[in-house]
Amino acid sequence: MAQAIEEYLAHRARRGSKGVRADAYAAKARIIPALGGEVAKLTVKRIRDWHESVAAAPRMVRTKRYAEKQATREFDADDAVEVRARRSTANRLLTVLKAALNHAFHEDRVGTDEPWRKVEPFREVDSAVLRYLSADECRRLVNACPADFRALVQGALATGCRYGELTHLTAADFDSEAGTVTIRRSKAGKVRHVALADEGRALFASLTARRAGRDLIFLRSDGEAWGRRINSAR
Fold first, then answer.
1. pLDDT per residue as tens digits for the range 107-138
2. Beta-bridge partner residues of 19
3. How far is CA 174 from CA 82, 147, 163, 179, 196, in A?
4. CA 78 – CA 88 distance, rounded (Å)
5. What pLDDT score was predicted for residue 2?
6. Helix (H) and strand (E) counts for the chain?
7. Roughly how many angstroms between the first and final C-alpha of the chain, as a whole number?
8. Helix, strand, coil % in the chain, rounded to nearest 5
């Protein structure tokens, strides 16, 4: 099992996939200890029992990012939100497991994919819970932010864009006549256009005034670009 997961993660790393390091630690903590041994000896029952046990297990808490020693935090089995979260984690681990085993199968390391193909993930645990801020909540959020970060928050509220999308926007990406913002670096890798309401249109007009087309729209108070992540932006 350990070899199958190692080869799969190495294959992903060569292809430039994201999340390899996080999946490696998750596999080391939750998959290999429980399902270690020969892949050929895995059964449907064993994989299903493991999947259900992960959903019923306490949540692991890292003392620091990717720390090897992990504490566990008890959860309330009667809390529907927590149960849903644990099942979602179990599903993500099942996805990693199946992908690793499928890779082994396609590489002729094992003769059949039937045991894991028959194990189904928990249903309806990853659907988004929608929560919209009221106009008053938006105002309070904006007012609580430092001046430079406030513009980013206003941009997010006006467009619905992610932090990384906003921090890469240039003045040329705002079309004042059409009232749109062009997102050229999206998570999906596709260009898209966001239509702005009057308030958003006025915001971007003020932020791009007297700026050259290649200038970033959102900058820190010191005039530098924002970092790749919010927690490393300053």
1. 998 889 999 999 999 988 876 666 778 889 99
2. none
3. 42, 21, 17, 7, 10
4. 16
5. 92
6. 10, 5
7. 42
8. 50, 10, 40
- Residue 50's Cβ-side half-sphere holds a number of Cα atoms within 13 Å equal to 24
* Element of type H or E holding 140: helix 135-143
Beta strand extents in 94-213 (DSSP E only): 174-175, 180-183, 192-195
61 close to 71: Cβ distance less than 8 angstroms: yes
Do 141 and 182 share a domain, yes or no?
yes
CATH number for position 6: 1.10.150
**Looking at the domain assignment, is residue 76 inside a domain?**
yes
Q: Which domain holds residue 201?
A: 135-232
Shared domain for 154 and 105, answered yes or no, is no
CA 123 to chain centre: 19
Residues 6+ apart with CB under 8 A from 11: 103
Pick the range with the lowest mean pLDDT from 37-41, 70-74, 165-169, 186-190.
70-74
pLDDT surpasses 60 at 66: no
87 residue type, one letter = R
What are 12's two structure tokens?
């992903």
**pTM across the whole model:** 0.56
Q: Are 76 and 59 in contact (CB under 8 A)?
A: no
pLDDT at position 134, please?
A: 87
Q: Is 193 helix (H, G, I), strand (E, B) or coil?
A: strand
Instruction: Give pLDDT tens digits for 173-193.
Output: 999 999 999 998 776 668 889
Of 201, 208, 148, 197, nearest in space to 172 by CA? 208
Place of tokens 């894991």: 116
Q: Rg of the chain's alpha carbons, rounded to an integer?
A: 23
